[in-house]
Amino acid sequence: MPAATAAGGHPADHAAAPLLRLIDIDKSFPGVHALRSVSLDIHAGEVHVILGQNGAGKSTLIKTLYGAHAADKGHIEVEGRRVAVARPADASALGIAVIFQEFSLVPYLDIAQNIYLGREAAFARFGLIDSAAMHAAARTILDDLGLDYDTHAYAADLGVAQQQMVEIAKALSQNARVLVMDEPTAAISEREAERLFATIARLTQKNVAIVYISHRMKEVQMLGDRITILRDGAVVTSVLRDEMSQTEMVGAMIGRPSGSQLARTPRAPGDPILFARGISTAKLSDISIEIRAGEVVGLAGLVGSGRTEVVRALFGADPITGGEIALSGSRAPTTLDARVRAGMALLPEDRKREGLALPLDIRDNATVASLWRRFTSGWFSPAAAERDTRGLIAQLGIAAHGTHQTVRTLSGGNQQKVVLAKWLAAGSRLFLLDEPTRGVDVGAKAEIYRLIDQLVDGGAGVVVISSELPELVQLCDRAYVMRDHRIVGHLDDDALTERAILELVVHQ
Amino acid sequence: MTAPTQSQQRPGAGQFFSAIPGAGILLILMLALFTIANPRFVSQTNLVNVGLQASLLLMIALPMTLIILTEGLDLSAGALLGLSGVIVAEALLAGWSVFAACAMAFAISTAFGALNGVLIAYLTLPAFVVTLGTMGLMQGIALVMTNGDPVGGFTPAIETFYRSQLWIFPMPIVVAVALYAALWLLLYRTRLGNYVIAIGGNKDALRLAGIRANLVHLAVYVLGSAIVGLSAVLLIGRTNSAHPTVGIGMEFEAIAAVVLGGTSFEKGQGWLFGAVLGALAITVLRNGLNILSVDSSLQVVCIGILLILALLIDRARKHYSR
Amino acid sequence: MTIPATLDTRSPSLSPDALALLGRLILIVLIAGALTAVDPGFASVSNLLNMLRQASLLFLVASGLTLVIIGGGLDLSVGSNLTLSACLAAAAIKTTGNPWYGVAVAVTSGTLIGFTNGLMINRLRLPPFLATFGMLWVAQGAAYWFMAGQTIYGMPMSFRYFGTGFFLGVPLPIWITLVVCVVCSIILHRTTFGREAYFMGANQTAALLSGIAVERRRLLLYVLSGLTAGIAALVYLARLNAAEPGIGEPLLLPAIAAVLVGGTSLFGGSGNIVGTVLGAILLTIIVNGLNLLNVAATWHPFVNGAVVLIAILADFIVSRRRSESG
Amino acid sequence: MRTTRPRRCVLAAIICSTLSSPAAWADGEVIAAFTKNQVDPHFEGVRAGVAQMAQRMNATVKNYTPTKPNNITEGMSQLEDVGVTKPNLMLFMPIDAKAQLPTIKRLIDSGLPIINYNDRGGDAPFLSFIGQDDYKLGYDIAKTLFDHLGGKGNVVILEGVKGSTTGDERKRGFDAAAKDYPNIKILASQPTNFQRLLGMQTMENLIQQFSTIDGVIAAADASALGAIEALNAAGRKNVAVVSINGVPEAVEAVKAGSLLAIAEFDGFKIGCVATAVGLNAIRGQSAPKQVTIPGAIITKANYAPWLIPYKDRTCPTPDAYIAK
Q1: Do residues A285 and A485 lie in contact, with contact meaning Cβ atoms separated by under 8 Å?
Q2: What's the mean pLDDT in B295-302?
Q3: Suppose A279 and one of A261, A287, B260, D128 were both cysteines; which one would form an S-S bond, judging by CB atoms 3.0 to 4.6 Å apart?
């Protein structure tokens, strides 16, 4: 592990004052206490890993650091001076740069133009950009990072990993001294990740501080000089790498001694509903899954491990290149609409873009997937749809003025319930739920759990994708664990624990 | 660093030949076919004709490229061309100097561009509808000013300018080439150019970079209208008179030229030179069919088929290069 | 969580769509009132019917277009589709002497053009704007070629009845408009296809992931647009008593304007057919009124443009106020 | 690239087929004949006349018409393009005389013999002008109507395209005639652009505005035919309509009685005479500066010759008109 050695070349020399300090940062949102008096010291030339499960407060922390959120309490110090970070521009000026998972590159500008977007004035001569100088400057920065990309290439033609590197280069070109990376390896391959680690090693040698957010234990072990573990918005512990074992870290993230968990009522699954063997797509290889009536099957894994792709392939949204899918014992129809009619339902991860028509009302959204079934003749009855919708609103406890409220104006939890209502109305028997509780409040979460129970009791099969391990463990009868676009393990009964999942997810 | 080298990076400049758009392929084919069918097609006179005709279309297609790069559209360009010509002509007849008349047309075009821009950039109304509305306004004003009649009899200086030559090159071609050069510099060598592409590609990224994206967006429409307004001088020079409805339909032809050249309606994908290819393709098609005296009705069909074919070629190439 | 008993306290008549329609209706009534005050002749039954008949021709071209736009598409070929269909139908009637052959030909050719549009958009993945723009030229050229500079005139009386006749004192084109409007309305609001069209227009991806057969529905939308262009071709033919290859082209932009003035958004997923009827009436009443006031015809484009801008601005202000209050 | 090949073959096939379509080569001179649009049958008459006379005199015709009706920029481009092909003779009618004049002058300077026909093309040195007197046509037809009405009554005028020579001259003729009849009241005069739909809708609105209309003067057949549709639909039976041109459809209307009279503006004859005069001129004869073809008034009494399809008519020779 040459990269790790390089990164580890600075056994934290903490005699010097920290480059950046967060002191007692506190932040609440309505109903959520996202950060509880978080303090963090970030030193130059050090990789500071922040570990934590989903909802532990990592993204709120980043946004506060970047000036996208204002902290309720506490303050930030740079080199011992108290600073105000009210806007992203302030953060940039202080040398703090964040590389988000969604990139801010312009597809049809080239690498150099993207790096210097908004700062072209530095290369302007008589109002014209000295293109050669700009590319030369970009070249220098890329060379510094050990990247041999052509600076004339469009961002649109770059892969995800390359775009990420360009984002890093962009941050460095702004003389960033603190570089925050939010799950940088989530969507890139192993080899690309290695290049990223090498780059990080170079950066630390140049005395840049890296704040690295990840779940991947291997990366944490390899890169982290200092590791801070967040849980429920509070810092659990902050240690040097060698002070804590991997097992202890996992334990600290989960917050319970491993093995202890909420009791799960065992269910008695029925006949298989779906059986998939050897499914391959452009992004998946050799996926085999079985789902039976009356059970909840989890799909665990990191973001980008291929979980979403699996449900999309099962649902017929992505073309499969190999393998076969059987529904209730017979070959599954090929088109998506036919699979819906055969009883499949998908609750997509991004409900606003893929699940709902935001400008339309609850009735239109809740009935859209069941029109073929409810109105077999093709004639639509507003009154019947109205009745159905009221029924669904009552059944799911959707808080709304009425059936004609536009979905855009609903809260996240209620929007999610509308998506569920759509499939309930369609009488689906196999529910593929991709992150069903993301972005919904605690109350709605509980109701969604209750609904899943009801569905299963009614004989449906449910697949749940979740990044929240406690949720998975509590909800699911068994779970498949994914890594690098493959299924790497299957856990059931007592074997299904957070620790077991984490170990499969993070281990090589 | 022992990391594998990143290969397969298509160089931006080298894309010129590796990715000749459908219009380019069709243009070459047409040039070959027309030359074989009638060698006069490549005579100097005819090439000058093609140049003159294409240059007027280009005067609209070039600014239209910038607008389409921002994921917009300007249906009012043709109507503005007519209106601006009428304004210049009427001002000249009223005894204004050529400079003052052009300044007036410039001012009014700019104002209309600003109206389009404000509605589209700041109120985020769809460009299609906004410019459809302003198209009516402009066309109406031109008609009302002239009572529908062509306006002639103004100073011959305008026509003299249109007919003049710079060395051996006719003035309209010089102007179009100059405009191309200017817009090329603007698009590829100034900040504003990057921002134009960024508006279509990722307006949020532009905002995040601290740029007043809406202002840039507005500026694109203002600039586009200003250019179209000034090109009206060439048009009335060509006809030695100003016609209130002369530009109607030219906006669609310009849009066709831009799209033929491989500029997409999405994500700021496109290139300025595509407008040149597209305008040449359309002009060469019409000119060649005229030279071969092909029936007008078949000419109409040919334009439609050319458009669809070029799009199909682009689509197919994109599909198989992935 | 319980549902309040007063689930729908906000009466359905105050739904945003109804509000938009009501606003347009009030505007029409106001304009009509003002015109009557200037010239009492405006309010005469014959003038109102005359105006409605003119509006109905515009509406028929715009009706199928409304469906396509609601479904998230665009059809620039309606005008030249109308031209070609009218020319072919006229030839069919002239050669056979049987109007029904003409009806069959116009409906078939209109539908085929719409079908081809749909196929190009579905299979070749061309953007609707460009695919139908190409079709605009092809259909127009085919009409020129077919007619070879001639007009075909002198339709049998039985056929002309569609354009010139009266039924119960009301011109037949108005009845046809009524029928088309009701049918489109039923399609949009009383069939599953219509509901799916709205959903597709509002969010294509979500429609696909909700199990809507998006491509088939889209094809049907373009077919319907072609079909109504074919029907409009018949009414124009019957009304003009002649087919010439120049009739349809000038109708495209007014038809789009009627749809937009009627409150249908170019982004898809909203609007309705009654709006387009009102849009067509609004555009017609203004021209009619300008004539009545002896305003020169040269003002018409200006006023039309102003109406389009005012309509979208009004909708913008209303929707912003609603989203602020909601 | 492999996918583009079949598409290219399709394109090549299309282009080849278009190349081989029109204009069979003859031995004689090449005539480039311009018309304004593919919509109005009047121009079909012109083209038929040119074709017949050219065939008779062993010359070849190539037709040029803008793809969009009366489109001035396209008309300009076609002029420029034809200059390149160097025909032996050009027959030119302006879409807009002012606009096209500079180009026409340059073509004449380059040695191309040009006959101006149908509409006046301005003060360029044309070989000859062959056409009719639009002012007189307008005056005569208006007079015909006024006489029919017994010298008094309410009349509306449906003008042509504002600003076109043809339209303006005819309008001048209408107005001059109206001055001679003090008891004729012109209720309104509106442009209908020589179009059928606009003629119909304008008439519909005029019907609403005026309760008594005794006569309608239309500047062209298409507008008149549209107006007749509007009058019939409104049940206004006793309105006398007159127009100018004499396309077959309008002559049928005269036969049927729905159109009172037409001032003959005969595209076929103009085409014939222009071709003959032009060919004679380039073959060494002197050309008359101007040939004005008199326009008959077509009424129910004499309509028959104008019902013959263009292709079955016989071209008159120029002598028939020059002798006078």
Answers
A1: yes
A2: 81
A3: A287
Tell me whether residues B163 and D15 touch, CB distance under 8 A.
Answer: no
What is the full DSSP assignment across A236-256?
A: EEEEEGGGS-HHHHHHHHH-S
Do the chains contact at A107 and B201, CB–CB below 8 Å? yes
Digit-coded pLDDT (tens) for A338-393: 999 999 999 998 888 899 998 898 999 999 998 888 888 889 988 999 999 999 99
Residues from chain D that touch C240, judged by Cβ atoms under 8 A, are: 196-197, 200, 226, 229
Query: Are D147 and D114 found together in one domain?
Result: no
Q: Give the whole-angstrom CA distance, residue B252 versus residue B263.
A: 15
CATH superfamily of A294-307+336-506: P-loop containing nucleotide triphosphate hydrolases (3.40.50.300)
Cβ proximity of B23 and D50 under 8 Å:
no
pLDDT in tens, B242-259: 888 888 888 988 998 898
Inter-chain Cβ pairs, chain A and chain B, closer than 8 A: 91
Chains with ≥3 CB–CB distances under 8 Å to D? B, C
Tell me the backbone φ, ψ of residue A242, rounded to 5 degrees: -80, 0
The span from the CA of D81 to the CA of D20, in Å, is: 19
Chain D nearest-CA distance from B199, in A, is 32
**C68: CATH:** 1.10.3470
D194: domain CATH number?
Answer: 3.40.50.2300
**Domain tally, chain D:** 2
Number of domains in chain C: 1
Q: Does A154 touch chain B (CB under 8 A)?
A: yes
**Chain B residues closer than 8 Å to A194 by CB:** 3
D141/D264 Cα distance (integer angstroms): 9
pLDDT band at B11 (very low <50, low <70, confident <90, very high): very low
- A-chain CB neighbours of B5 within 8 Å are 148
pLDDT exceeds 60 at position B16:
no
Mutate to test the interface with B, among C302, C317, C318, C323 (most CBs of B within 10 A): C302
| C-alpha angle B206-B210-B216 in degrees, rounded to nearest 5 | 55
Tell me the mean pLDDT per 10 residues along chain D, length 324: 42 46 56 89 92 92 87 86 88 88 89 92 90 93 94 92 82 94 91 86 87 93 92 87 92 92 93 93 88 92 90 87 66
Q: Is A192 on the interface with B (CB under 8 A)?
A: no
Q: Tokens 């500066």 appear where? A: D289
CATH of the domain at B146: 1.10.3470
A-chain CB neighbours of C193 within 8 Å are 378
Report in angstroms the alpha-carbon separations of C23 from C26, C69, C282, C311, D319: 5, 21, 12, 10, 69
* Domain of residue D234, residue span: 134-264
Contacts of C46 in chain D (CB under 8 A): 208, 234
Which regions in chain C score pLDDT beneath 50? 1-13, 325-326
Against chain A, the chains showing at least 3 CB pairs within 8 Å are B, C
Q: Which residue of chain C is at minimal alpha-carbon distance from A419? A: C210
Q: Work out the pLDDT band at A290, boundaries 50, 70, 90.
A: very high
